[in-house]
Specification:
The protein is of the alpha+beta class. Helix content is 36%, strand content 21%. Strands 14, 15, 16, 17, 18 and 19 form a six-stranded antiparallel β-sheet that branches. Strands 4-3-2-1-5 form a five-stranded mixed β-sheet, with helices on one face. Strands 23-22-21-20-24 form a five-stranded mixed β-sheet, with helices on one face. Helix 9 crosses helix 10 and helix 14 runs antiparallel to helix 15. The chain starts with a strand and ends with a strand.
Length: 577
C-alpha cells in the first residue's frame, strides 16, 4: 500500500511536523507499505518531495531553495509571496493537486500539527477526494484544536473544576492593562497560565509568576502573537542587534513569524523589509510600534496555575471502537518554564511510566482518559495531558489528536508498554484509521476491500519466520541510543527479528523485551531490570492482548539473563554497537 506521508503545512509547528514525517518515512513497515513523502508548503501546496530531502535538518534548509534567498536571513517560503504562483523546482519535487492524490498514494498519513492541519481542514479535503487518512475524523479534530472548547467539554464529561478566563483581542486595551491584571489576580491568582487556544508544542504558552504588570503584558502579547516594540529599545541596538531582532521574529520557535502586520495596517513579508521599515519609522516617531502575526490569535485562554504531578496519557481503540487508555507517563520538568525550546531540548524533562502514585490512582487516570476520548468524539488515537494534584484530584487539558511522532514521543513509549514497536504502532494507526473511516459511511465498500487486503498482508507477514539478529550494546547512554536506533530500523526493514541484548554493568547479559528499548537513559533500563515490571504495565498489556496479538503476534515480555554472550544460542547473527 502506498502511504502519502504528509508533513509541513502553514502552522508554527511545521518543524515538529517534519520530525514526525521523518519517523513515518523511515519506520513504516517496508514489507507492507511504500512511503511517499508529501511536503505541504506555507501556501498550502502539496509537493511530492524528493526522498533525499527528507534527511535535511529543517525545512528551511531545502525550501525555499537557496537560489531564491538573496541575503543571509533564514526564512520560510511565506517571506516570498510572489513564489505562490511559481512552479516548484524539480530538484525539490513534483507539485500535486488533490485530484491527483489517488495516482500517487492510497492512504494519507498525517504528521501535521496546528491550524489547518489537525483542526479538520486537511481531513475534510481528503474526505472530499475519497482518500483515507490517519487519526480522528472531522469532529474529533475540530474539538482537539480548540483549548477553550476542550475545557468546557471535558468539564461536562468528568465535572472537573478549573478556573479560567477567555480574553478577546478587542478587550486588550493598553489603558486597561493594569485593571485587567488586578481582576485576573483576584479571580485566578498567581502564577497565571496564559495560552494561545489553537497552538500546540507549547507554542504560545506563558506563565506569569511574579506580580509584575510588565511580565503580564509581555505574556499576553506573546500569546496573541504580537510584540510592542518601544523606540528606546530599538535605538539601543547596534546594527547586528537589529538584524538579530528581525531574524528572531522569523524563527517560529521564538518569534511571531512572517508575514507581520505593523500597527494593524502595513503587511511586511521579509526580515530585510521589516528592518528597513522599523528603522524608517523610528526616525520620525518615538512611541511604541506594534508588530502582529498575520495569523494572530483573536482570543486567548487564561487559567489558574495547577500544582501537582504532570502527566500525559495516550488512548487508542480496539477494533470495535472501544477505547484503551495506555499507561500514563509522568513529566518531570527540569526547567521553570516549559516552552517550545524547553519541550524539545534534551535534558529539559524526564519521563516516568507510570505516574509515581498508587496503582488505583493510575487506574483512575486511565478511566477518565478513556471517558473523555469517547465522549469528545475522538477516534483512533489521542494524547491527553493532565495534572494529579496533591489532594488526589485529576485535572485534564489539551487533547492532542495528532501526537508528536518522533521515535521517543509519549505515544510510542506508551504503546511499547503493550508490546508494539514504532513500526508496529504505525501499522496500527493506519489500520485502525481505515476502520474508523469505514464507520463514516463514505466510500464504504472500497475502504472495506482496502482493510481486508491490509489485514491479509499483516497476518501473512506476521506469520513469516524471520531470521533473528541480535543487537549487543554496553551500558552507556551513547551505546543505548545507537541500539534503539538500530532496533527501530531493523523492525522497519522487515527482514530480521531484532533482539536487543544489554551487557550490564554487573557483567551479565540481558535479553530485553520491547518496552526496555523506549527508555531515556541506560540507568532507567538497569533500574527496571532490578525492580521488576509495574503491575499497571502488566495489567494494561493484558487488556491490549488482542491488539498486540494481531500486530505483533505472540511476544516474549520477559527478561532473560545470561552469564556470557555465547550462552544465547538463539542468536547467531549480531550487530555489535
Amino acid at each position: 500500500m502506498r502511504i502519502g506521508v504528509f508533513f509541513g503545512g502553514p502552522s508554527r509547528e511545521r518543524e515538529i511536523s517534519f520530525a514526525g514525517g521523518k519517523t513515518a518515512f523511515e519506520y513504516l513497515d517496508k514489507s507492507l507499505f511504500e512511503p511517499v513523502p508529501v511536503f505541504v508548503d506555507s501556501f498550502g501546496r502539496f509537493i511530492k518531495l524528493e526522498h533525499s530531502l527528507m534527511y535535511s535538518k529543517e525545512i528551511r534548509d531545502f525550501y525555499p531553495a537557496k537560489s531564491n534567498q538573496t541575503d543571509d536571513f533564514k526564512t520560510y517560503i511565506e517571506s516570498f509571496p510572489e513564489m505562490a504562483k511559481q512552479p516548484v523546482s524539480r530538484e525539490i519535487g513534483v507539485l500535486l493537486s488533490p485530484d491527483q492524490f489517488k495516482d500517487h498514494f492510497d492512504f494519507a498519513f498525517l504528521a501535521m500539527h496546528g491550524p489547518d492541519c489537525e483542526d479538520g481542514a486537511i481531513q475534510g479535503l481528503l474526505e472530499w477526494f475519497k482518500i483515507p487518512y490517519s487519526g480522528p475524523g472531522l469532529m474529533g479534530s475540530a474539538v482537539g484544536i480548540d483549548k477553550i472548547l476542550q475545557n468546557e467539554m471535558i468539564a461536562l464529561v468528568n465535572n472537573q473544576q478549573k478556573k479560567s478566563w477567555t480574553l478577546r483581542y478587542d478587550q486588550w486595551i493598553p489603558r486597561e492593562y493594569s485593571i485587567l491584571f488586578t481582576v485576573l489576580k483576584k479571580h485566578l491568582g498567581l502564577p497565571l497560565v496564559i495560552k494561545a487556544p489553537h497552538q500546540g508544542s507549547s507554542i504560545g504558552v506563558a506563565i506569569v509568576k511574579e506580580d509584575s504588570l510588565d511580565a503580564f503584558v509581555a505574556a499576553v502579547n506573546q500569546c496573541f502573537f504580537q510584540v510592542e516594540l518601544e523606540s528606546k529599545t530599538w535605538k539601543a541596538l547596534d546594527a547586528a542587534g537589529k538584524r538579530a531582532y528581525v531574524q528572531r521574529i522569523a524563527n517560529l520557535d521564538e518569534g511571531i513569524g512572517f508575514p507581520v502586520v505593523v500597527n494593524g495596517d502595513k503587511i511586511i513579508y521579509h526580515p530585510a523589509d521589516l528592518l528597513e521599515q522599523l528603522t524608517n519609522m523610528f526616525v520620525v516617531q518615538d512611541d511604541i510600534i506594534v508588530l502582529s502575526s498575520s495569523n494572530a490569535e483573536d482570543q486567548i485562554l487564561l487559567e489558574e496555575f495547577i500544582e501537582g504531578q504532570e502527566f500525559s496519557c495516550g488512548c487508542i481503540q480496539f477494533d470495535n471502537g472501544k477505547p484503551l487508555a495506555l499507561p500514563p507517563s509522568e513529566v518531570i520538568k527540569m526547567v521553570d518554564v516549559f516552552d517550545f525550546n524547553a519541550k524539545y531540548k534534551p535534558g529539559a524533562s524526564r519521563k516516568r511510566i507510570p505516574v509515581d502514585t498508587t496503582l488505583e490512582k493510575n487506574r483512575e487516570i486511565q478511566k477518565v482518559i478513556a471517558e473523555v476520548f469517547q465522549q469528545l468524539g475522538i477516534t483512533v488515537c489521542v494524547r491527553i495531558d493532565g495534572f494529579l494534584t496533591p489532594e488526589g484530584t485529576i485535572l485534564l487539558h489539551d487533547p492532542n489528536t495528532i501526537p508528536g511522532m518522533s521515535p521517543t514521543s509519549f505515544i510510542f513509549k506508551q504503546m511499547a508498554e503493550i508490546g508494539l514497536s514504532v513500526t508496529q504502532a504505525l501499522t496500527y494507526f493506519i489500520r485502525q484509521s481505515i476502520r474508523e473511516r469505514i464507520r463514516l459511511g463514505k466510500d464504504t465498500w472500497n475502504l472495506r476491500h482496502l482493510l481486508e487486503s491490509l489485514d491479509e498482508k499483516i497476518t501473512a507477514e506476521k506469520n513469516v519466520v524471520k531470521p533473528v539478529k541480535g543487537i549487543l550494546f554496553d551500558a552507556s547512554d551513547e551505546h543505548y541510543a545507537l541500539a534503539r536506533q538500530t532496533y527501530g530500523k531493523l523492525f522497519a526493514d522487515g527482514v530480521y527479528k531484532p533482539v536487543p541484548v544489554l551487557h550490564g554493568t554487573d557483567g551479565k547479559y540481558y535479553q530485553l523485551p520491547n518496552p526496555f528499548m523506549f527508555k531515556e537513559y541506560i540507568v532507567d533500563v538497569e533500574g527496571l531490570i532490578s525492580q521488576g515490571r509495574h503491575p499497571l504495565l502488566t495489567e494494561t498489556a493484558q487488556k491490549a492482548k488482542s491488539i498486540t496479538d494481531f500486530f505483533a503476534g505472540e511476544i516474549d515480555d520477559q527478561i532473560h539473563v545470561f552469564n556470557n554472550v555465547e550462552a544465547i544460542e538463539l542468536i547467531r547473527d549480531w550487530v555489535v554497537i
